[in-house]
Q: What sequence folds into this?
């Protein structure tokens, strides 16, 4: 089977988002991009660079710092046949437009018996780096998972960043696209032609037999680092990227747990009432009586810290995930084993808001 044109190209995550956006804007004149800084010369992490020059100010434009009002503009445009992509520099400030998202966008299709639809995409950045602290590092994907009518996707690879975004743009429901800022520079193979990923489908990135690890967003990268270390002590780990959190592909995850007998979910958010809790609950319901060994990791139960030392303690890492996984597996070396520090080659830093 021959590869499609450009299938072997390497793009980073931000370039994949930019390419997917541009291709959909070329395909459909109803697609437009709005948000704080989207027409900046550096293009908001590089994800919107040059779109205003290609498509004009009517289809790629800056907005005021008025999240609630601008979300209303996007919803109104979607109700009238447009397909807006509303970009937020940080997910923290989606709290300012929760009524619009939860009570308006998510419910129009249901309340009007399918006569109305709100085909809008909300892109929002999450994640740590350079001391962003309590109000600029939060991830609220679990909030939106809770709301019927909203789709939630957290792509981790460049390939899925493009495919998931295109699927979100073409979908007739409001979709929350969650992007971790430390992923923007990560490279991967991205085909040139447009493609839409399957909504609600997870991917097994690494097969294994002793333990299933599910990593959400950037935590997937840390889980893969942990799997490399666990291999050194003879543990075979299956690593799964859920990609879509709503709808959630519980079949793929639970089938893996049925094979391995153990599950560790590592979330890029707090564990209390979070995505990790929901995934574990659904697995246990899917496997009645099987009683797999389960565990979860995520943010410690405090606001996100600012200093680098506290950040290292607050966020799960490949090292801490490996230690927890070894204990879940009952490995004889679990209490004395030291996975060692994360090599510099495995660390990607985020250098600034653009």
A:
């Amino acid at each position: 089977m021959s590869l499609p044109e450009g299938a072997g190209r390497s793009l980073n995550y931000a370039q994949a988002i930019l390419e997917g956006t541009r291709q959909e804007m070329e395909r459909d004149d109803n697609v437009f991009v709005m948000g704080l800084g989207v027409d900046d010369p550096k293009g908001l992490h590089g994800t919107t660079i040059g779109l205003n020059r290609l498509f004009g100010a009517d289809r790629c434009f800056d907005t005021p710092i008025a999240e609630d009002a601008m979300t209303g503009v996007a919803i109104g445009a979607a109700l009238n046949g447009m397909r807006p992509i509303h970009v937020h520099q940080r997910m923290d400030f989606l709290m300012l437009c929760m009524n619009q998202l939860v009570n308006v966008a998510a419910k129009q299709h249901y309340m009007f018996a399918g006569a109305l639809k709100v085909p809008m995409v909300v892109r929002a950045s999450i994640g740590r780096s350079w001391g962003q602290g309590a109000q600029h590092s939060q991830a609220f994907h679990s909030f939106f998972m809770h709301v019927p009518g909203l789709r939630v996707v957290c792509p981790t690879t460049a390939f899925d960043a493009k495919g998931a975004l295109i699927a979100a743009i073409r979908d007739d429901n409001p979709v929350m696209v969650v992007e971790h800022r430390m992923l923007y520079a990560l490279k991967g193979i991205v085909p040139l032609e447009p493609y839409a990923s399957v909504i609600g489908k997870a991917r097994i990135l690494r097969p294994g037999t002793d333990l299933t690890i599910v990593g959400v967003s950037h935590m997937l990268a840390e889980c893969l680092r942990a799997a490399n270390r666990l291999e050194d002590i003879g543990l075979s780990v299956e690593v799964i990227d859920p990609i879509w959190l709503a709808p959630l592909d519980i079949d793929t995850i639970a089938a893996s747990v049925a094979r391995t007998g153990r599950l560790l979910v590592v979330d890029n958010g707090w564990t209390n009432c979070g995505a990790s809790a929901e995934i574990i609950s659904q697995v246990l319901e899917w496997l009645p009586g099987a009683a797999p060994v389960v565990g979860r990791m995520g943010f410690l139960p405090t606001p996100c810290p600012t200093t680098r030392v506290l950040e290292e303690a607050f966020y799960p890492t490949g090292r801490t995930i490996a230690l927890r996984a070894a204990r879940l597996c009952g490995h004889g070396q679990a209490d004395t084993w030291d996975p060692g520090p994360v090599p510099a080659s495995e660390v990607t830093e985020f250098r600034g808001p653009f």
